[in-house]
Amino acid sequence: MDKTAKAYTEFKYNRYMGKLRNLDKNAFDYVESASPHKWSRVHCPQRRFRVMTTNVAECINSYLKFARQLPMLTLAEFIRNMLQRWFHDRHRAAQSMRHQLTDASHLVMLQRVEKCGYMTVNPGDWNIFSVKRSGKQWTVDLARKTCTCNKFQMDHFPCSHALAAARYINSIQLYAILSKRDCHFFHCFCRERNLDFTSLCSDYYKRQTLIDAYSVPAMPVGHPSSWVVPSDIAERVVLNPKSKRQSGRPMEGRHASSSERTTTQSCRRCGQSGHNSRRCSNPPLINEGPSRIVPEEYRRKCSVCHQVGHNKQTCPHKESAEE
Average pLDDT of 180-196? Predict the structure, then answer.
């Protein structure tokens, strides 16, 4: 299901949907009837810009987990203070970035540039290139910013094939400079064009756009006694919304998405997972060899009978000792 939602082409979407049908027919019918344009990347009428989760909204919901129990005015002031602090911190973090792209986009760019070394580029025109790797072939059009893998035009961010074609142009430029020759292909293609990798990206991935997004701060409102409220607003009576509370205890946490990494707590005393060292009742691991033999003097003993293997809560001689 995760691969189906993130597919860039109809071919991969149909292939993963076929696997889902063979795995569970009911699950296939459910996702088919759930309007694929709402959850599938290839069927979405708008561009998602590589965002496939609702983690931004879930982050705010998680931060307001305890504040939702406050009165309405206190909750509104809590949200305003939160946004005021967030806008200031993110604006300062955006200004400290050293690249033209944001740090997250720059990291993705480096990962895709690393894949270019395994690709073969064959120019077909001044703008069109054929990129091959491992028996597969893609067609890149740098003028229209498209690629047959659909990543370039759907994310407005260059894929590894487009970066390979752009790097091929840069190699021609370097060859023309070092050899001091008049490279006709280079001058025809690069006369009025910047082949910097960031020029192939949309402005939404650039550092300046992030700075502009947080340039307008959330201003403080002062104490309520200093507010100037119009009379027509002060006379309004706002009642509670007519809603019925759902049965059961409301969920305070959230469900992790499939792309998130889940961490498991492990004990540093015994090496097992599911608890920490403060709640550990297992003997410590002194030797980490295959046998894992623990000396007798290092094993935890019961404070009642001074035997190994249990504590005072589960001691079988607890009643007799109390008598």
Answer: 47
